[in-house]
Specification:
By secondary structure, the chain is an alpha+beta fold. It folds into 3 domains: 88 residues, Zinc/RING finger domain, C3HC4 (zinc finger) (Herpes Virus-1); 122 residues; 179 residues, SPRY domain (Jelly Rolls, Sandwich). The strands form 6 sheets. The protein has a 7-stranded antiparallel β-sheet, covered by helices on one side. It has a 6-stranded antiparallel β-sheet with strand order 13-22-15-16-17-18, with no helix packed on it. Strand 17 and strand 18 form a beta hairpin. The longest helix is centred in the middle third of the chain and has 109 residues. The protein is elongated, with a radius of gyration of 50 Å. The protein starts with a helix and ends in a 6-residue tail after the last strand. The N terminus is likely disordered.
């Protein structure tokens, strides 16, 4: 081996990844060799698996086994290199290093420890173990301290066996006493087994690391998507609210201009009347002066000749019925707001259509669960329709069934993410729709509120819509919906209801805390003598264009 190793160069024993002499060298299918730890770490970071030297693609990750031949050659090369290095400069043992047990005076750094002699040797004192035939058979290892710990304290023999029964190292004499009937194997055999287990554990750990790295990338990707959605939503929100703000400001300006115009016309009318009155006052003052002067005259003839002219009344207007009434502003603001609402209705409709289109992307297939249906209910064969019958069926009283109320749940349950479905309620005068948590009371008549595990809206008396909160909320809808969309965001704690045809939001429960499975909930309510006989129909979702 020594002769062969002398013919080999240092480059042939270097790992191309760490550029150091091989440690636990392994060969991969393309024929190249690497340190086991180096190629393992390389493949943990780089996927798909490729050879770092020739870039050959490996479709599956090879199971790595140490190449004992190359390992022995590398060990010989390393030992030779160490001997050459140490021969040129002997080093004293530093703190933390194993000193030579044979050296007197200055303790040199040990190169090897002998498991037979239980002594650590520097380069000089190790020479006999490398040259003498009797000592060559001794087992040398990298220098370690406390070699006495490798001896059996009871028999003072080397611990070269392993008791699998007690899971401890023993010596040969122990197998004739305390471990006589135990399963004992050579230390090397157990070493190889445990080393294989460690290799398997290391592989499992690396796989776990790789899975977590993939999960990190998945989470980062989710954050990136969330950021994109947030930016898009902000941009759309700014655009919508800017348009709303401009519309409001424009309507406000128009309202102010209209009011000011009314006031201006009133002022103009008043100024006209005042000007005319002041003109008449001026004429009357002039006549008053003339009358006063004539009344002081002592000329009989002049007074009589002038009296006739002065006695004639000047042309004046009868102001008795003249009024300046302030303009009426009653209903001005209300009409302006109504006009503004009509102006905003189109962009608002587009906004709701966009929102409905987004939630419809979470559409799921929902079917009714007959095992939960109240005995008064009639379900279609495909599980898509339910109505209330006139006869109570004789059904098993299983725990899932609702006994007192005309209720049925879907077979599907949801404990994460988002889901959406649509229900046709055309022709009905009463109904309940929403979602419930799995643990709701199914045997008693209780309030259908979030506190009891119900999130839903309802129709009563044909035109009275309510959100069954606590207290309930009366809903004001512009039109009667014929198809209702139900959307749930589990993590967000959101339950929203939409008028599908009008693309309008009916109501949202927000800030909900969901801690268990949710089921879609359907209640067609009582038949009411046939007035409410139309079924609730789970409809396929036609995505809004």
């Amino acid at each position: 081996m020594s002769a062969a190793s002398c013919l080999l160069t240092e480059d042939q024993f270097l790992c191309s990844i760490c550029l150091d002499v091989f440690t636990d060298p392994v060969s991969i299918p393309c024929g190249h060799n690497f340190c086991k730890a180096c190629i393992t770490e390389h493949w943990n970071v780089n996927v798909p698996y490729q050879c770092p030297n020739c870039n050959k693609l490996l479709y599956t990750r090879p199971e790595l086994q140490v190449n004992t031949f190359i390992s022995e050659m590398a060990a010989q090369f390393r030992q030779s290199a160490q001997q050459k290095a140490s021969s040129s400069e002997q080093q004293a043992a530093k703190p933390g290093e194993v000193p030579c047990d044979v050296c007197t005076g200055t303790k040199l750094k040990a190169l090897k420890s002998c498991l037979v002699c239980l002594v650590s040797y520097c380069e000089t004192h190790l020479e006999p173990h490398l040259t003498m035939s009797g000592l060559k058979r001794h087992q040398l290892i990298d220098p370690v301290e406390n070699l006495e710990g490798r001896m059996c304290t009871k028999h003072d023999k080397q611990l070269d066996l392993f008791c699998k029964t007690d899971q401890m190292c023993v010596c040969m004499l122990c197998t004739y006493s305390d471990h006589k009937t135990h399963d004992v194997v050579p230390l090397e055999e157990e070493y190889e087994g445990k080393k294989a287990e460690l290799g398997k554990t290391e592989t499992e750990i690396q796989q776990m690391i790789q899975k977590r790295r993939v999960k990190i990338q998945e989470i980062k990707h989710s954050v990136e998507l969330s950021e994109e959605d947030a930016d898009r939503e902000i941009a759309e929100g700014v655009q919508v609210f800017t348009a709303l703000k401009e519309s409001v400001e424009r309507s406000q300006a128009e309202l102010i201009d209209m009011i000011k115009e009314k006031q201006r016309k009133t002022e103009e009318q008043a100024e006209g009347f005042i000007k005319e009155l002041e003109q008449e006052i001026s004429e009357l003052k002039k006549r008053s002066t003339e009358v006063e002067q004539l009344s002081r005259s002592e000329d009989h003839l002049h007074l009589l000749q002038s009296f006739r002219t002065l006695n004639t009344a000047p042309p004046t207007k009868d102001w008795t019925g003249v009024r300046v009434s302030p303009p009426s502003y009653e209903g001005t603001v209300v009409r302006a707001v109504n006009q503004l609402e009509e102006t905003l209705s189109k962009p608002m409709k587009k906004l709701f259509e966009a929102e409905l289109k987004r939630v419809q992307q979470s559409a799921v297939d929902v079917t009714l669960d007959a095992d939960t249906a109240n005995p008064w209910l009639i379900l279609s064969d495909d599980g898509k329709q339910v109505k209330t019958g006139d006869v109570r069926k004789n059904l098993p009283g299983n725990p899932e069934r609702f006994d007192t109320c005309a209720i049925v749940l879907a077979k599907q349950s949801f404990s994460s993410g988002r889901f959406y479905y649509e229900v046709q309620i055309k022709g009905k005068t009463d109904w309940n729709l929403g979602v419930v948590r799995e643990s709701v009371n199914r045997k008693e008549n209780i309030p259908l509120t979030p506190q009891k595990g119900y999130w839903m809206i309802c129709l009563r008396n044909k035109n009275e819509y309510k959100a069954l909160a606590d207290p309930s909320v009366l809903l004001s809808l512009k039109s009667q919906p014929e198809k209702v969309g139900v959307f749930v965001d589990f993590e967000e704690g959101l339950v929203s209801f939409y008028d599908v045809d009008a693309a309008a939001l009916i109501y949202s429960f927000t800030g909900c805390c969901f801690t268990e499975k949710l089921y879609p909930f359907f209640s067609p309510c009582n038949n009411d003598g046939g007035k409410n006989s139309a079924p609730l129909i789970i409809s396929p979702v036609n995505h809004t264009e």
